[in-house]
Amino acid sequence: xxxxxxxxxxxxxxxxxxxxxxxxxxxxxxxxxxxxxxxxxxxxxxxxxxxxxxxxxxxxxxxxxxxxxxxxxxxxxxxxxxxxxxxxxxxxxxxxxxxxxxxxxxxxxxx
Length: 111
Fold this sequence. Notes:
single chain
């Protein structure tokens, strides 16, 4: 949200720095998310679940890269393309938040 709101008046270098900080925070959250996701599984299934999670993260990264390339190539200029990209990421963030909130409504987390 912060990046999409500042696209119009922040320069390229500022946006790159903003995105680097965003990416570092996202990567730091991966370990905690993976641990939480496999916490309720039996010990013998945890390695398979982590492999599936990491594979899905790679697939999602490739899909996100393809979508960003599509948006950037169809935009009339760089700033509009960046704005569309950040709005796409905002949509993904809202979806992730909803799925995360639903996760805590499952039976495993109610105990």
